[in-house]
UniProtKB/TrEMBL annotation:
InterPro entries: HTH_AraC, TPR-like_helical_dom_sf, TPR_rpt. The chain crosses the membrane at residues 386-405. The lineage of its organism: Bacteria, Pseudomonadati, Bacteroidota, Flavobacteriia, Flavobacteriales. It comes from Chryseobacterium kwangjuense. Pfam families: HTH_18. This is Helix-turn-helix domain-containing protein.
Amino acid sequence: MLKKIFAFVFLITYASISSQNQRSVQFYKDKFFIYQKIGVDSAMIYVNKIFSSKKDIDQAFAYTSKRFLLTVIEKKYDEKNYLLQINSYLKKIPETKENYTDLSHIYNILGNTDWENQMFNEAIRNFIKADFFAQKNNDVKQHIKIKANIAGIKLELKQIDDALLETKEALKLLKANKNLYEKGKYEVLHNNLFSNLGHLYSDKFISDIDKNKKYADSAFQNFHQLLNSTKEKNFQALAYRRLGTLDNYKKNYSKATEYYLKSLEIYKSLQFKDEILNLTYNIGVNYYDSKEYLKAKQNFLELSGIMEKDTIVNIDYIFAQDYLSKIYLKENHKDSVEYYSNKFMDLYKENSEIEKKEIAELYKDLNSKNLDDEINKNSSILRNHLFLIIALVLLIIIIIIYLLYQIKKKNRTEQRLNVLLTQVKNNSLNAGNRANKNNFTISNEKEAEIINKLLELEEKRFYLKKEYSLTFVAKKLNTNTNYLSQTVNKHMKKSFSEYSNELKINYILKELSENKKLRSYTTQALADMVGYKSGISFAKTFKEKTGVTPFQYIEKLNAEALS
């Protein structure tokens, strides 16, 4: 009798512990799904705890979610081993009702990982599998989410009709099951899907303007309804921008300008840099199409001036150079035509083969010319010009003005070096802008927290890490990139990129001054020390911040040591 009592107590205790462990595992899974809110690092901690479970379904979930997070942060991992583990555990899991929820989540995460890796066909297969389990489980919310994902992939594959169908079905389901969502969550999902539907109508119209005019009407109606139904500024700005694009294609240029400017005003209030740059380009194109070449030129020059200070080159910046060359051709400014034409070609050549193909297709649409033919034609012209330049250079070399210019240039560099050495010795590099907790009086509690945490990272020299970026720091501070960027701009009076580069360059200036051994290092080695991936990028930033090259600065330090 006593043995039976002990056995019964043991079973009750085991069941209680097992139930508690499973609740903990579910808690960790739930944390993964809010990784955008809590940050990838925090989500990774919870995901790693799931591995403590001995259940096959939990192991499959852990490997799948960890692989996704590693993909999001672009961290190298053994892809083959992860897939091997995932597939191994999935084969062991019975397709029973108790596993439907997790199986649907696992395949959905696999699909999103494939999407991130631009493996669109694999993503579709995984999303379909995820949807299979969602429907077997009668999980309507999951079913809607997956349909939206499938629509996104169809759009990536240019299968616009299929994407339209999936999006419409998702919207219909969402409306029919409105009661399943909190009001705020429902509105966000609805506005996202509704906006995507308008985007798809626009793309369908643009793909064949003559045949698909009815889709333009649908898109106009869609975006105007969105403007009437939402107070969210980002959705309003998006709607105005796409209305502007539709009117541009319909050659209603004045109306397009009106919509673009409304969108630009909202994005400026939100301080969305990428969207502001894109609209600056779109407005320039619209002015060009309406033959307002002076206004178009102002927009393209404004965009170029901003982008030249940035290390990232986007397609708008590349095509702005092409438009500028065409505008200067109309103005008969041959030197400027050649300059911007060559600049366009140089920027084109810096891209990958996939990006080159995309640029070439856009160029053909815009100019009705083959880009490769234009490059060959320009190369021939360039060879002829090169011969003339060589002849001119031979003449210029014997002119004393050139020598005087070189001397003057050397004197300016020497002056910069003297000022720089004095600043380094006196610890006065950008003293007025130097971050210090006592420099800030911040009424906004959240902004104050961000600045204080940012300064703590600075004190720990996190800025020397290669992964130190706006995204990295935002995740470290448990905030988003837009809010972090706005806070730095507001309180430090500089962009995050300027702030980061200033810390790195000031650090290496001080280290080179105090440590003679470092002066023998290569530019790439110095770049590695302060977290730059490229020695060229480091040298360029060094020159921008100091007015001299790393080599000139080291030469000056060595000369000072000998004197």
